[in-house]
Design brief:
With 199 residues, the protein is an alpha/beta fold. It has 5 helices and 14 strands. Strands 2-5-8-11-13-14 form a 6-stranded mixed sheet, with no helix packed on it. Helix 1 runs antiparallel to helix 2 and helix 2 packs antiparallel against helix 4. The termini are far apart.
């Protein structure tokens, strides 16, 4: 735990981010093994997690979450991460990021050095490749390749920068259904005035 926490602290200068990470890593430590010493730490962890993480920052970082070292929290507010998700090392999280389930099909698996912009949501059993970038406000329901970028709602998946298919890359999203609109009938203003009843 201490080595992982040191790597986290190297990437976070904000005192609040460090406090949140300290509580999160302490919770992970209590969940790793069922020893007496670790079980004694469960109650203090739950109190700190409730007061600081849940109430103080409105975030949910469950201790069962598997996350590699070097987690960076730019603004540790509004983060919701599912306990079943798996995150690699060197992850960057901006505020209001959601990583979790869409239904009961599974949770996301995130590679190393992935960046999540503010308000991004990754839902369902998707795989986010290493060094991918999830744009602010993106909704990701499909896999993102290594080095790729996910933008928009629903996120459009683009190949890595410098890829051979970049000029003609097509979206993996289904085309939008056409909207039927009633025909527009022109109105003759002069005729409309002549047919208006006299007052």
């Amino acid at each position: 735990m201490l080595d992982t926490l040191r790597q986290d602290f190297r990437r976070n200068r904000d005192p609040l981010a460090r406090l949140v990470l300290l509580i999160f890593r302490f919770g992970q430590w209590t969940a790793e093994q069922r020893t007496i010493g670790r079980q004694l730490g469960v109650l203090p962890y739950k109190i700190l997690n409730l007061l600081v993480v849940r109430l103080g920052t409105n975030s949910d970082l469950p201790r069962e979450l598997r996350c590699g070292p070097g987690l960076r929290l730019f603004h540790p507010y509004g983060l919701v991460l599912h306990a079943g998700a798996r995150l690699g090392a060197g992850i960057d999280l901006y505020h209001h990021v959601t990583i979790g389930r869409r239904d009961f099909s599974g949770e996301p698996v995130v590679g190393d050095e992935v960046t999540f912009g503010a308000g991004a949501a990754v839902l369902g059993p998707v795989v986010i490749g290493p060094r991918a970038k999830i744009g602010a406000g993106a909704l990701v329901l499909d896999d993102v390749p290594a080095g790729g970028t996910a933008l928009g709602r629903r996120a459009e998946i683009r190949p890595p920068t410098g890829g051979a298919d970049r000029p003609g890359a097509e979206s993996t999203n289904p085309p939008a259904a056409p909207v039927d609109r009633p025909p527009v009938v022109p109105v003759d203003r002069a005729e409309s005035r002549s047919t208006r009843p006299a007052g």
